[in-house]
Amino acid sequence: MFKLWLSIKKDTRILLRDKVGILLMFIMPIILVVVVTSIQNSTFELVNKNKLPILICNKDTGKASVQLIAAINKIGMFKVTQISKEKEKTVADEMHDQDALLGVVIPANFSERVSAKAKNVSGKALTSFGLQADTIKKEAGGIDPLTLYYNPVLQESLRFSVQGAIQSALQLVESRQTLRTLYFSINEKPLPEKLENEMLSSQTTINMFPVSKDGVRTTPNASQHNVPAWTIFAMFFVIMSLGGSVVREKISGSFIRLKTLPTSYLVGLLSKQITYLCVTLLQAIVIFSMGIWLFPYIGLPALNLPSDIFALFIVTLVCGWCAVSYSICVGVFAETQEQANGFGAVSIVILACIGGLMVPSFAMQGLAKTLSNFSPMHWCLQAYYTLFLEGGKLKDVLNNIGSLFIITLIIQFITYLGLKRKNLI
Known about the structure:
Layout: H1 2-17, H2 19-48, E1 52-58, H3 63-75, E2 78-83, H4 91-97, E3 102-106, H5 110-129, E4 147-150, H6 156-187, H7 193-201, H8 222-236, H9 239-252, H10 254-259, H11 265-294, H12 309-333, H13 337-355, H14 366-372, H15 376-388, H16 398-421
Parallel strand pairs: 1-2, 1-3
Antiparallel strand pairs: 3-4
Helix pairs in contact: 1-11, 2-8, 2-11, 3-6, 5-6, 8-11, 8-15, 9-12, 9-13, 11-12, 12-13, 12-15, 12-16, 13-15, 15-16
């Protein structure tokens, strides 16, 4: 025990001398957490709170186009600005000038075509009801399509949402006109506005709730997503210090000298794991503390810790141990410190990509989806998400912890084989 304590003191002193490594392990993840959370929170606010600026060029002079513009404005996700119909050819330029993300051109015959389609549909309905003879000689022409311009920066999912919203507004205008025409054909008088509103607004309500294992319904925010993810990234980035430390000890002959001393190589490896495991726990404490207390002061949503703090500690401990084991493994197989740092940094980024830190796992397909199961970061992230986003308990993350534990043991075994092959033990 005394030998282990001395070895831990030695590794701690070596770590404190590595100023660059400490900066990479703490400062870089802190900057990443703040920057990425700020960007994602701005995106969330753009979609959920702010309105998308949209320009509408109305070439039509009828009532249907006015109703369409009112319906688009009523959706609540657009900030509508109308431009002169003479500017149809310069809608793209107007979008750039006014920083608009969307532009819509309503064709000149829009109201006429909507009215013709409504008469055609109502006529067919009356004929099927047996209320009038079939006097329809030919089908009414379709409505000329709206022209929708969009800024290329809009993601595909957001474009589909915009298209669906405008399509709903268009459908409302067509349904309103068809209902009015049908009512007038039957009663020979205009449809009362109150009845029209009642018939068109009688929609089934949809209640949306996030999935929660503890029954507490809380809406996740950008901090809940990003703080755990980049904490994992910070843990694995101890490779920049630990991997280089292992390489330096190999080159200096420390492992060989251990053979001549009344001690074991296990003491040295265990001391490194304990020392850097404490570093990973400190990283988690620092980043989580920032999310809880600093984020509200810089305009970001506060991080809400899960109710099961013990489960959070266990997950953090296992994640840190896996990160430390991987770092030692890379250091054992690397021949130089440059190799350890270069391969370590690139491999961490790759593991983060396929593990779901940069691209959500549910968006992956095929080979990428399969490879994500082999990334330790994937299991770390799933465990954290279960606790932070779903309100899970320790029993809910045992599967993730078990998978992560198996991966860690495999890495430890590969490290042992590397030490044996290099005759370092």
